[in-house]
């Protein structure tokens, strides 16, 4: 798809639906919640109905429905990852971002390949197995080759014969040939946020650089999937525009990908605007999203796109992250830094945004386990070819849990044996054994066998 061919974000349809379903009645809400429990996805009209919920009882039913869907498809696992910022150089002027080109309040830095390996080693020492490689839209003299070299460096990094097993990438929109080159580096998911789907708002907040081109950005996932990258991740930056509009526009984007490629996004991220050095807008967002509405957003997304992974970053506080586990979140970052070199050096001003959860990895893992969720470091699906349509075919009916549940337990046991503090180890082992005891049939057999193999000295085992 070329940039000029974008017709799938339709303001008129969105505005008409928002007006028609602004005040849904109880029968409409109950009908949509019942439809959501079938786990086949929701229409734009259905999403508008759920956004119109106002009564506490109905909101509680929405939250319970989202929890049921998440538990049915994904179980009690939470996939763990860390962002790795390789450069904060940027040629864009985005008024909400610390990396904007005219911002003189941060220290600019592009890591060389040895520094990237050292940062990766620091993440391996924490126990991480998944990395999200992030860069601003400007690279050193190597150009886009810098990104490709950086992916290789992350995979090559090693600490005590341990390594990163999956590199996901969040970089600026690419050409078809560049996406093909990225695919050749064996990346996992390509992730890109539209920031806002509302054209007038987009124009207002993007005032310089290539990112001013709305259509080039919104069509990036088409080029990525045409290039063979079958796992893509989307999202908006909540706070730039009315969240109700953004939710329906994002649903239009999802429906477009499903119609054209047969699969929707592998992940949806829900970043909410946080203060960023040198950005007045980030301190006073144009359309702030309350905590209550933010929880609603997560729950509605889980109901509307039941198969997708919902990502919650460390932008949010530890408490908000805890609250959203039961509402649909299935992936979280931990121990994160948002500035290049941040895992080796402390720098509180040069990150992309302020963190809400500053806890170290081990503390996050312990907290998650105490809540009864299994931290997962598994990368088995990607390496067994369960991506794109193959993954969706398993995820949509909930069958993926038979693989992901045992794999989560074995990868968590591997973390516990090599990286956990004594307190976290004790809590974690109790959770692993309790979880296996609650499983039945083939998943229980798989889990017991994989965990035993890990405890006998093997690593990186999965089914």
TrEMBL record:
<feature type="domain" description="Radical SAM core">
    <location>
        <begin position="74"/>
        <end position="307"/>
    </location>
</feature>
<dbReference type="InterPro" id="IPR034428">
    <property type="entry name" value="ThiH/NoCL/HydG-like"/>
</dbReference>
<dbReference type="GO" id="GO:0003824">
    <property type="term" value="F:catalytic activity"/>
</dbReference>
<dbReference type="GO" id="GO:0044272">
    <property type="term" value="P:sulfur compound biosynthetic process"/>
</dbReference>
<dbReference type="GO" id="GO:0042364">
    <property type="term" value="P:water-soluble vitamin biosynthetic process"/>
</dbReference>
<keyword id="KW-0411">Iron-sulfur</keyword>
<dbReference type="InterPro" id="IPR007197">
    <property type="entry name" value="rSAM"/>
</dbReference>
<dbReference type="InterPro" id="IPR001387">
    <property type="entry name" value="Cro/C1-type_HTH"/>
</dbReference>
<protein>
    <submittedName>
        <fullName>Iron-only hydrogenase maturation protein HydG</fullName>
    </submittedName>
</protein>
<keyword id="KW-0408">Iron</keyword>
<keyword id="KW-0949">S-adenosyl-L-methionine</keyword>
<dbReference type="GO" id="GO:0051539">
    <property type="term" value="F:4 iron, 4 sulfur cluster binding"/>
</dbReference>
<keyword id="KW-0479">Metal-binding</keyword>
<dbReference type="Pfam" id="PF06968">
    <property type="entry name" value="BATS"/>
</dbReference>
<keyword id="KW-0004">4Fe-4S</keyword>
<dbReference type="InterPro" id="IPR024007">
    <property type="entry name" value="FeFe-hyd_mat_HydG"/>
</dbReference>
<dbReference type="GO" id="GO:0046872">
    <property type="term" value="F:metal ion binding"/>
</dbReference>
<dbReference type="InterPro" id="IPR058240">
    <property type="entry name" value="rSAM_sf"/>
</dbReference>
<dbReference type="Pfam" id="PF04055">
    <property type="entry name" value="Radical_SAM"/>
</dbReference>
<dbReference type="InterPro" id="IPR010722">
    <property type="entry name" value="BATS_dom"/>
</dbReference>
<dbReference type="InterPro" id="IPR006638">
    <property type="entry name" value="Elp3/MiaA/NifB-like_rSAM"/>
</dbReference>
<dbReference type="InterPro" id="IPR013785">
    <property type="entry name" value="Aldolase_TIM"/>
</dbReference>
């Amino acid at each position: 798809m070329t940039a000029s061919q974008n017709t799938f974000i339709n303001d008129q349809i969105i505005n008409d639906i928002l007006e028609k379903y602004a005040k849904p009645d109880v029968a409409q809400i109950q009908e949509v919640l019942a439809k959501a429990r079938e786990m086949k996805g929701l229409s734009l009209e259905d999403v508008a109905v759920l956004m119109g919920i106002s009564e506490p009882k109905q909101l509680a039913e929405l939250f319970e429905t989202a929890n049921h869907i998440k538990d049915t498809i994904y179980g009690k696992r939470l996939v763990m990852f860390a962002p790795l910022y390789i450069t904060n150089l940027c040629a864009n002027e985005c008024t909400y971002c610390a990396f904007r080109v005219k911002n003189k309040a941060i220290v600019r830095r592009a890591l060389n390949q040895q520094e990237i390996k050292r940062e990766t080693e620091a993440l391996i020492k924490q126990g991480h197995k998944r990395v999200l490689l992030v860069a601003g839209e400007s690279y050193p003299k190597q150009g886009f080759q810098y990104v490709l070299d950086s992916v290789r460096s992350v995979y090559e990094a090693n600490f005590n014969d341990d390594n990163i097993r999956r590199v996901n990438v969040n970089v600026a929109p690419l050409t078809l040939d560049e996406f093909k080159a990225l695919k050749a580096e064996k990346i996992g998911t390509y992730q890109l946020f539209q920031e806002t789907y509302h054209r007038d708002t987009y124009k207002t907040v993007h005032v310089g650089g290539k990112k001013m081109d709305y259509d080039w950005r919104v069509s990036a996932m088409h080029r990525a999937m045409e290039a063979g990258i079958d796992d893509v991740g989307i999202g908006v930056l909540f706070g730039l525009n009315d969240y109700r509009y953004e939710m329906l526009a994002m649903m239009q984007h999802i429906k477009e990908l499903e119609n054209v490629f047969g699969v929707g996004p592998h992940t949806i991220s829900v970043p909410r605007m946080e203060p960023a050095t040198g950005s007045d807008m980030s301190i006073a967002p144009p359309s702030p999203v309350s905590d209550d509405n933010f929880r609603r957003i997560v729950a509605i997304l889980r109901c509307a796109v039941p198969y997708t992974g919902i990502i919650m970053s460390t932008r949010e506080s530890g408490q908000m992250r805890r609250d959203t586990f039961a509402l649909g979140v299935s992936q979280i970052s931990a121990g994160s830094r948002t500035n290049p070199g941040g895992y080796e050096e402390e720098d509180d001003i040069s990150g992309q945004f302020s963190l809400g959860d500053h806890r170290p990895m081990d503390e996050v893992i312990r907290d998650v386990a105490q809540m009864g969720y299994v931290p997962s470091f598994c990368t088995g699906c990607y390496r067994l070819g369960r991506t794109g349509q193959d993954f969706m075919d398993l995820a949509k009916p909930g069958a993926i849990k038979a693989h992901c549940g045992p794999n989560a337990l074995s990868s968590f046991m591997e973390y516990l044996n090599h990286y956990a503090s004594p307190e976290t180890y004790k809590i974690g082992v109790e959770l692993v054994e309790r979880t296996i005891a609650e499983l039945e049939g083939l998943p229980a057999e798989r889990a017991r066998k994989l965990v035993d193999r890990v405890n006998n000295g093997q690593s990186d085992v999965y089914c």
